[in-house]
Design brief:
The chain is an alpha+beta fold. The chain has one domain: Orthogonal Bundle (Cytochrome p450), CATH 1.10.630. The chain has 18 helices and 14 strands. A 5-stranded mixed sheet has the order 1-2-10-7-3, sandwiched between helices. A hairpin with a 7-residue loop joins strand 5 and strand 6. Helix 7 packs across helix 9. Bound molecules: protoporphyrin IX containing FE. The site of protoporphyrin IX containing FE (HEM) has 25 residues, from helix 13, helix 14 and helix 18.
């Protein structure tokens, strides 16, 4: 951790929870899906060359121990999709390839994760109640001014007191958790505890007991429901107040306000989808630059390249490389007859390294021709928070380059590497010298 830490500021203090919550490898181990990310890529390329769609689960095909991401997928036949075109075809056909594999297609379900699990037309109606707060002008305006620049400034000031830092823990981890929590309307100082309670309230962590899950779920719910009540009485400039003002328009029904549970589902999804992803992706983007010094130098000299560096990091190593779809009716797909009830494993990571779309796909090269990549998904469920993520990472990298012109990896610390699980990947750490 950082030298000369400031213990008086909760947001920037050396809280041991950062190390507990922001270790990519431990995170993968705790959900039972850790894998050596770089080591599987040659096998993935070989499989794709045999046909972009393959019967079986990727873990089976790679000879890895099974890990059940979604209980609803258990016992069903699986197909693995590894090319860009085939993943795109599946993403863009939600009528046949549904996201209901996540498990809760009824929004009234206590555990429902909101729009991520819905299909059209319900998905469209609910997404429209939250989308306006996530468009690019809002990301560059409200999100940046309201939250992102504030936390970046404080973190830079804290790091500037020392000569070394671990950018993973001291920087990348702290920006998204503060951004999301304060955007929702909670106090920034509550960010870490709230995320801890949230992560320990879900069924994916193996290290918590059922009782701990229930009590953490109560903390999350009472925190958000209490906030909704306060904002209903006195609206503020935050996401919960915004959602209280939005109307849900289901086809053929009269517009109505969102219920408290619908707002809770939106908030929980934004917390989980936005809290971990930007942290890991910012680390991956910095890892790419710090290990490709010529490209880092080019970005230093021409800041217009920061966006290209981020997009290439998303292509090269998207933090969330696999997503799943439930097959809703018998279908022919890339030479396979796939029955209703089967599950597709969509390899966004492998699609982003498809040699039919990118030359030298395993290399990080921010100068390559600009083509859409799949890190944020495509079609109906394309990431709601992608503009916010891009602004967080862009502002984060620019601020580091502004304040630490000699920023480089610490040669005396262990060299960082990509790690994690099939479903979430990131860097082992980012030890740097600042001056
Ligand atoms: C670099 C960071 C991020 C990556 C790589 C990423 C990736 C993705 C992907 C691949 C999906 C599509 C899932 C699917 O099709 O099943 C998705 C959906 C979503 N993401 Fe992100 N995400 C990131 C950051 C964020 C942030 C910062 C937020 C919120 C502030 C967010 C909120 C969401 C939400 C709400 C959805 C569901 C959208 C829907 O179902 O319509 N994400 N994300």
């Amino acid at each position: 951790m950082l030298e000369g830490a400031d213990a008086t500021d909760v947001l920037t203090a050396d809280d041991p929870l950062y190390e507990e919550l922001y270790d990519v490898r431990k995170e993968a181990e705790s959900v039972g899906n850790s894998v050596e990310v770089a080591a599987i890529m040659p096998a993935v390329h070989a499989m794709r060359a045999q046909g972009p769609v393959i019967k079986g689960r990727l873990r089976e095909l790679l000879g890895l121990p099974l890990h059940e991401r979604h209980a609803r997928a258990a016992g069903r036949p699986h197909w693995t999709v590894l090319s860009y075109d085939a993943c795109e075809a599946a993403f863009r056909n939600p009528a046949i390839f549904s996201n209901s594999v996540q498990g809760h297609d009824n929004p009234a379900d206590e555990k429902a994760m909101g729009i991520l699990e819905m299909d059209p037309p319900m998905h469209r109606a609910y997404r429209r109640t939250i989308q306006p707060k996530f468009n690019m002008p809002e990301a560059l305006g409200w999100w940046r001014e309201h939250t992102i620049d504030t936390i970046i400034e404080r973190l830079i000031a804290r790091m500037a007191k020392g000569e070394r830092a671990d950018l993973n823990l001291d920087y990348c981890a702290r920006i998204p958790v503060y951004t999301i929590t304060t955007a929702i309307g909670l106090d920034g100082d509550e960010a870490l505890r709230f995320r801890h309670a949230y992560l320990n309230s879900t069924s994916s962590s193996r290290s918590v007991t059922m009782e701990q899950r229930i009590s953490n779920a109560r903390i999350v719910e009472s925190t958000v429901l209490g906030l909704i009540e306060r904002r209903r009485a006195e609206p503020q400039d935050d996401l919960v107040s915004f959602l209280l003002g939005m109307k849900l328009q289901m086809p053929g029904e009269a517009p109505r306000a969102l219920t408290d549970r619908e707002i809770l589902a939106h908030v929980k999804l934004v917390m989980v989808a936005g809290g971990g992803t930007s942290w890991r992706q910012m680390g991956i983007a910095l890892f790419a630059l710090l290990t490709h010094r010529d490209q880092l130098d080019a970005v230093r000299q021409d800041r217009a390249l920061v966006d290209d560096a981020i997009e290439e990091s998303l292509r090269w190593n998207p933090t969330a490389p696999y997503f799943y779809r439930m097959v809703m009716q018998d279908t022919e797909f890339y030479g396979h007859h796939i029955p209703e009830g089967a599950v597709l494993e969509l390899g966004l990571g492998p699609a982003n390294r498809d040699p039919a779309r990118w030359e030298r796909p395993d290399e990080y090269d921010l100068f390559r021709p600009k083509l859409t990549n799949m890190a944020f998904g495509l079609g109906t469920h394309r990431c709601l928070g992608m503009n916010v993520a891009r602004v967080e990472i862009n502002r984060g990298i620019n601020a580091l380059l502004d304040h630490f012109p000699a920023l480089r990896l610490d040669p005396d610390a262990p060299a960082p590497f990509m790690t994690g699980g099939l479903e979430q990947q990131g860097v082992s750490g980012l030890p740097v010298l600042l001056g």
